[in-house]
Amino acid sequence: MQFVHIADNHLGYRQYNLDEREKDIYRAFGECIDKIIEIKPDFVVHSGDLFENSEPSVNALYTAIEGFKKLIESGIPIYIIHGNHEIPRRTFKKSPFTVLKKILGDHFKTFFKKKYHIFKKEGREVFIGGSDYTPRNRVDTLHEIYKMIEVASKDYRDRILLFHQDLYSYSAFPTYEIQLEDLPRGFKYYAGGHIHRRILKCVGEGILAYSGSTEICRYDEYEDYEKNRKGFYLVDISRKDFDIRDVERIDIKCRDFVVDKCIIDEESFKRFLENLESKYEPVVICSVLRDLSERLERALESKKILYKKITYLDGITEEEILNIANTDVDEVFKEFLKSRNYDVNFVYGIYNEVIKGGNLYRYLEDYLRGF
């Protein structure tokens, strides 16, 4: 028996407010759908943030409906939780999943009210528990739900948990909602969403997995993409002795990025050009010494670039730049915030969003929702 674990498609996201980046998001989702149909798993679990926001555009809704219809027509049901982006901001507003449920029917299963479902095939039963994203100020409620799910699952051999939370020690952000020990025990596979990089770890007798986002939502995700790619996991729970070898990474292609924070001499300039040459219509994010700026601009003009963001380094020597590059600037900045009695997590989070091309409004909304 096999299932697919996918998350964080963020349909409707317009990085840098570009039509092309919104289309990239849809293309990545469509490629995932096509690969899933090729594989023909028994079911799909989705760990949240299908959409970029709780009131998705017509294009985003249409993309989700068409993709999931293809899965259902191929006999593949979907089990999905709400991420922090899909949860309506006001209680009287409906979730976009309401529309999907109305169109897709019983093959599209959510966990908004019912916290678990049983998948049955050829006499075998799989317990699929899940809870929607929960902010920090309501984490006690989440603990109660996890306890209920743990009790309800105790008689099942195959147990899967869907969650969409920042997990302590795994999150790159300065805040988190839960720790590993908060998750219900005894599950074979913990299907995480919210963290955009791929994570696959053994935890006790089970597997903790974040399948990651299916496109690059922040430019600092590109380094991980080069190492671990983007896509989803194919999980085979057929063997009695299930382990990490039964989880296969299925990759897709994303938009190229060229990221270089330190173009300061001929060697680094040459390295940048070599990297640029191998990319097709990339997003370019770089910092360059002012003396090299004209040459850099000429190089960029000769190649088709989707988007560029260049920071010019003025009034600083190469030695000073190298010293900065070798210093843990983040830690220095955090110490400065502490010395001024600022909320370190909050201000550092804003700093991260601004310098890394993230969505500041979204960060503020998510952070303040936790109070």
Automatic annotation (TrEMBL):
What species is this protein from? Methanofervidicoccus abyssi
Protein name according to UniProt:
DNA double-strand break repair protein Mre11
- Return the EC number: 3.1.-.-
Coiled coil residues, start to end: none
For this chain's record, the cofactor binding note is: Binds 2 manganese ions per subunit.
Name of the gene: mre11
Cofactor(s), by name = Mn(2+)
Family label = Belongs to the MRE11/RAD32 family.
Q: Which residues form the Calcineurin-like phosphoesterase domain?
A: 1-197
PANTHER family under this entry? COMPONENT OF ATP-DEPENDENT DSDNA EXONUCLEASE, NUCLEASE SBCCD SUBUNIT D
Its biological purpose: Part of the Rad50/Mre11 complex, which is involved in the early steps of DNA double-strand break (DSB) repair. The complex may facilitate opening of the processed DNA ends to aid in the recruitment of HerA and NurA. Mre11 binds to DSB ends and has both double-stranded 3'-5' exonuclease activity and single-stranded endonuclease activity.
Gene3D superfamilies in the cross-refs: 3.60.21.10
Q: Could you say which residues bind Mn(2+) 1 here? A: 8, 10, 49, 196
Judging by the UniProt lineage, the source's domain of life is Archaea
Regulation of catalytic or functional activity: Nuclease activity is regulated by Rad50.
The record's active-site residues are 85 (proton donor)
Q: Which GO terms describe its biological process?
A: double-strand break repair
User: Which annotated residues bind Mn(2+) 2?
Assistant: 49, 84, 164, 194
